[in-house]
Specification:
The protein is α/β, with parallel strands linked by helices and about 500 residues long. The protein has two domains: about 220 residues, no CATH class; about 250 residues, Nitrilase/N-carbamoyl-D-aminoacid amidohydrolase (4-Layer Sandwich). The protein is about 45% helix and about 15% strand. A six-stranded mixed sheet has the order 5-4-3-2-1-12. The chain has a six-stranded mixed sheet with strand order 6-7-8-9-10-11, covered by helices on one side. Strand 6 and strand 7 form a beta hairpin. The protein is globular and about 75 Å long. It starts with a helix and ends with a helix.
Length: about 500
């Protein structure tokens, strides 16, 4: 029982290290009880139980807010929360079971492989329809800007590795309490900070290639957005916020995800005309989130969560969201079993897009993503490899009015800026909207649940980082090392 209590405490403390409490330093030692636990148990069943208990309380601490979803009733919200917690707990279960499997083949010092195991599983679980990097250990360290600069080379997985390694060395000190362990811990602790000081880019000054942008946060409550006949008021509000200043000209204007519930491009005639008239007067262009439908047959239509590039005389490009939110925007397996689409759990039943569409403004390429897509490094990398010099996200976190969901979501933008050394524009309906520079500094930020406008200049960047060129090679190396040790352990056992 005392061990179980320590495991639960370890999980909760590590969860509290996540945003937005600013307690990231807890993760430097909060996993020591977890390591002690997996070292002290022997059976498969005990490993399974330990992995589930730690994963359950860790994820519950992070994503309890799912139950507060304003788009559905409380019962479905609570069911969704526990379902997500159990689903994400699979991550830790796999880590512990992999460790159990390796421990039986490699021997007593197999705990030294734990950082490699953790990163391997965390990386593998970042793929597929049910992937979600939201729970990554790396996200606990977002407040330490110098520390996380190594993400330019390793991605988020280098940070997760560092956290586990710190805790591993802390475990060794706990066991033997010698000065060598303390020195090793201090060395590993300091290494990424020193590296970060060296590689962090010098603050970029505004140049002739800078682009003037206007990010509009309308703060439209979910109930108002859904209200029948609300479109005229919402459009007028967006236009007022965007163009009320007579001196705002020659700008790229950005509106958030599903800025209006109407299908603006298909049947928003007079509204689209109104928007384009003001774009022409101000010599500006608009990137906006919006729902789109396309005819699939004479009677069938396909619906998408999209971004459109609107100019004074045309709609130039449309991006359809690729990575949809399971149970929120579609029902998994519904493409195989169409009858699942009839289930009404508050989801939108959108279709997946399949093209990495870029938007051109003043000769510069913009890569835009919708909401949760901002948290996927691999997806962002695809846009940068296609030529994106600026990344932007249109977001609607209005489903969750209160912390910590909006803060957790917004802060992950910092990692994307560092990984690709791109300025990032984040436009959210109810907040938090941001402009983050290529070093990860948040240059501009709005408050939550307030209408606001950010007007600023940004500098595009076309240079490719190590992470952009080679992707998650660090994570793949971790997998390779595990496979090598597994093979070695098996061969020794056979001998």
């Amino acid at each position: 029982m005392p061990q179980l209590i320590m495991i639960i405490l370890s999980a909760i403390l590590t969860g509290l290290a996540q945003q937005p409490l600013g307690l990231g330093w807890l993760a430097w030692f909060s996993l020591i009880p977890f390591i002690i636990g997996i070292q002290n148990v022997c059976s498969f069943k005990d490993h399974l139980k330990l992995g589930f208990m730690w994963g359950f309380f860790y994820n519950l601490t992070i994503i309890f807010w799912i139950a507060q979803n304003l788009g559905t009733n409380l019962t479905i919200g609570i069911i969704s929360m526990f379902s997500a917690v159990i689903l994400f707990s699979i991550n830790t279960i796999l880590i512990v079971l992999a460790y159990y499997f390796i421990k039986r083949r490699v021997g007593q010092f197999s705990y030294l492989l734990l950082p490699f195991i953790w990163v391997s599983i965390e990386f593998i679980r970042s793929f597929g329809a049910l992937a979600n990097p939201w729970i990554s250990l790396a996200n606990t360290q977002i407040d330490f800007l110098t520390l996380i600069q190594i993400a330019e080379y390793t991605g988020i997985y280098g940070i997760s590795f560092w956290i586990i390694l710190l805790n591993l060395l802390g475990y060794e000190w706990y066991c033997d309490k010698n000065k060598k362990s303390a020195f090793s811990w201090l060395t590993i602790f300091c290494l990424p900070w020193i590296t970060g000081l060296i590689i962090m880019p010098v603050n970029t000054t505004i140049s002739q290639d800078s682009i003037d942008v206007t990010i509009v946060q309308p703060n439209v409550h979910l109930s108002e957005k859904r209200r029948q006949g609300a479109t005229p008021q919402n459009i007028n509000n967006l236009l007022k916020l965007s163009f009320s200043d007579n001196y705002v000209k020659d700008r790229l204007v950005i509106w958030p995800e599903t800025s209006t519930m109407s299908y603006l491009l298909q049947n928003g005639g007079r509204y689209l005309t109104q928007i384009q008239r003001l774009l022409g007067i101000t010599n500006s262009e608009l990137l906006t989130g919006l729902p789109v439908y396309k005819k699939d047959s004479d009677t069938q239509y396909l619906y998408y969560n999209s971004i459109a590039h609107i100019k004074a005389d045309t709609v130039e490009n449309v991006y359809d969201k690729i990575h949809l939110v399971p149970m929120g925007e579609y029902i998994p397996l519904s493409s195989i079993f169409p009858s699942l689409k009839k289930l009404n759990l508050g989801q939108a039943n959108f279709e997946h897009g399949d093209e990495y569409t870029l938007f051109d403004y003043n000769g510069h390429k913009f890569g835009g993503m919708v909401c949760l897509e901002s948290t996927f490094p691999q997806l962002n990398r695809k846009f940068v490899l296609e030529g994106a010099e600026v990344l932007f996200y249109v977001v609607n976190d209005g489903w969750y009015e209160n912390p910590p969901e909006p803060q957790q979501h917004a802060r992950q933008t910092v990692f994307r800026a560092i990984e690709f050394r791109r300025p990032i524009l984040r436009c959210a309906n109810t907040g938090i909207s941001q402009i983050v520079d290529a070093s990860g500094n948040i240059r501009h930020q709005t408050h939550l649940n307030q209408a606001d406008v950010i007007q600023a200049s940004i500098v595009p960047n076309s240079e490719l980082t190590f992470y952009t060129k080679f992707g998650d090679i660090f994570a793949w190396l971790n997998i390779l090392i595990i496979l090598v040790f597994l093979g070695r352990g098996t061969s020794q056992k056979n001998e």
